Amino acid sequence: MNIDPEEIEPLIALLDDRDTVVTELVDSRLASFGPAVLRTLRNRAQQETDPALKTTIEDRARQLNTTFKLADLQDFVNRAPGPLSLFEGSWILSSLFDWTLQRERYEDLFFRCSQEYLAEGSDQRTGLENIRILNHIFYHRLGFTLYDVQLKDPRYAFVGNALKTHQGNPFVLAFIYLMICQVSGLPVELLCFPGGFVPTYVEGGKDLFYINLYRGGELFPKDRLDTFLKATGLKIDRSAFRRRDESAMLTLYLESLLYIHTNRKDEKMSAVIDRALTILGPERFLTIDEPE
Length: 292
Fold this sequence. Notes:
Layout: H1 5-12, H2 20-32, H3 36-47, H4 51-78, H5 86-97, H6 103-118, H7 127-141, E1 145-146, H8 159-165, E2 167-168, H9 170-184, E3 188-193, E4 196-203, E5 206-212, E6 218-220, H10 225-232, E7 242-244, H11 248-263, H12 267-280
Parallel strand pairs: 1-2
Antiparallel strand pairs: 3-4, 3-7, 4-5, 5-6
């Protein structure tokens, strides 16, 4: 949709009007243009020489983007039943948190990662062989590196950033890893338990082996699961384990973001994340303590 800048300019002049009726009408009119208005506002903000007005335009664009993207997330969830596309979910969430993100650029960044494995994986190999190939590509050739295991630094907390830098916290790297598995047809799901998860390769309805993303994708059999848990410092009753499909990664990712931004006392970001989590449903996988 092409938007005539002359339609937007009178609205921009009213963005900082103190009359709430006026601002509500302006917001409603801007929203009526749909997501295409964000590109127009971004271009207008880049041209603006008045710092105060530039900030006002950008703030209003962020608010509109939140509205659009949360609606997209609701539509995405409503498409069920059926498997959810992790890539599409990651795009919606990444663009929810970065209103300047471009879809074409995002697709290109992910394609560059996934095509590496797609060029070398094969149905003629065993699952073990294919995951070893993926691990070599993911950790060594592409150089994805684990940072911020304690979940304190937002620089490593977003999928969009990690697709560019190949650096991320455990939840971000797991998200990208599972995205590649999904588009490649590798049956990797999540074995979830209170406080965490471990990717599991499923064959014939059974967990064939597990993947330790903390240690470069190290593979280990079922009888070493207790050892893995002990290394994480968690004491979990086996009855609490639940296997979930890849869509649980969306909730886990948002929970990790909520933990980081709650601890940083970022109320605005925490509120947006909480709204996104509500759309995904009531199930939670992490225990998030309130900051003291």
